[in-house]
What does this fold into?
Amino acid sequence: MENLVLYRKYRPQTFADIIGQEHVTKTIQNEIKSGHAAHAYLFSGPRGCGKTTTARVIAKAVNCLNRAANSGEPCNRCANCVEIQSGRAIDLIEIDAASHRGVDDIRELREGIKFAPAKLKYKVFIIDECHQLSKDAANALLKTLEEPPAHAIFVLATTELHKILPTIMSRCQRFDFRKLSLPELVGRLQKLADNEKIKVEKAALELIALSAGGSVRDAESLLGQILTLAAQKKSAIAAGDIREFLGMTETKSAAELTRFIAEKNAAAAISHLNEIIEKGYDVAEYGKSLLNYLRHALVLAIVGPKDAKNDNIMIAGLTDEEFEILRTQTLAMGEEKIKNIIDIFLEAQGKIKYSPIPQLPLEIALVESCSR
Ligand SMILES: Nc1ncnc2c1ncn2[C@@H]1O[C@H](COP(=O)(O)OP(=O)(O)O)[C@@H](O)[C@H]1O
Ligand SMILES: [Mg+2]
Ligand SMILES: [Zn+2]
It folds into this structure.
C-alpha cells in the first residue's frame, strides 16, 4: 500500500520539481509564459520518467488563474489548479490508448472536442501510449490535429516513438524524455527518504536506483515497499536489506567464485556454482551478475582504488566491506588476468541459452579460468 502512496504523494506539481528533463520543461515554460503553448505535443521516452507528470503540469499552467506574468509555472492554489490537481477537472481528458485503441474512442473524442471547455480555458487531452491506437483511430486523430480548435491542447505520450505515424509526428512539437542517471535517481530517493524521516545508506539507495533501470517511478515504488518493510527497524536501511528484499546475494557469491578462481580451486568453484543453481537462481542471470562483478574489478584495476569509490557510478551499489574485498581481489589478480577471465565468461554467457545443461558453459569457464 505504502508504495502507491509514495509515488502519488511525491508526483511533481511544478515544472521545477520534474528532474532530469530540463530540456523539455524549460522550453515549454517559455512557451506558456509568452502565451504560445503549442496545440499538440508529442512526448516520447521510457516509462516512469515524467511524461504524464509534465502533461498534467501543462494542463494546470495554461489554465491557471493566478499565473504570474513572468512565469510559466502554475500557482497550484487557484480554483483551476486545485480542480486539476484533485483529478476532478472534466476539461482534462486522459485517454489510455492501450485500452481505448479503437476508432470509436477517437471519434467520440473528435465529437467532444468541438465543444468549448465547460469550466477551464483550455480542454487538455492527454493520450497515453498513443502508439497503440489502431490505424483508423490514428487517422481520425490526425484529422483532429490538422485543424485543432483554439481551445484544445493535445499531449500525446509514447514509449515507442518509431510506431507513431510520421504524419502525426509532423503535427506535434516533439520532446524526448530521457532515462534518469544513477546519481539523479539517488538524489531523488534521498530526498524522499529524508522527507519520510527514514535513514537509508547510500549504497542501499544506489542498489534501488540500479534495479530501477532509469525509471523514477520504479525507483520510488521500490523505495516505498522497502520503507514499509523497514518501518519497525531502528538502524538505517543497509545495502544488505535491499539485497535480501530483491533476492540478491549475487555480489557475495560472485566474490566467493572470484576468490576460488584466484586460488585456482576449480572443485570449490564448481560446487559453489551448483549450490547457487540449486537454490533456484536463473543461470543466465547469475552469469550476468558474475560478469558485472568482474567488470567492477576491471574498472577498479584501471582507475585505481583512490578514484574508484567516491561517487564512481561504474561501481555503484557496493558496501564498504564488499568494496574492500573487491579491491583486494583486484590487486591480487591484476588487469591482464581479469581481462582474460572476463573474456572466458563472456563467451560462456553466450552459450548458456543453447546448452542442454544450462550451467555447463559456466562450469567449463570456471575450470578454464582456474587453469590460467
Ligand atoms: N522526471 C521526474 N522527476 C521527478 N519525479 C518523477 C519524474 N518522472 C517520474 N517521476 C515520478 O514517477 C511517477 C510516475 O511518473 P509519470 O510522469 O507518470 O511517468 P511516465 O513517463 O510513465 O508518464 C511520478 O508520480 C513521479 O513521482
Ligand atoms: Mg504515463
Ligand atoms: Zn493556478
Remarks:
- Residues 51-52, 128, 157 surround magnesium ion (ligand 2) (CB under 6 Å).
- DSSP finds 17 helices and five strands in the chain.
- The radius of gyration is 26 Å.
- The chain has three domains: 10-176, 182-246, 250-371.
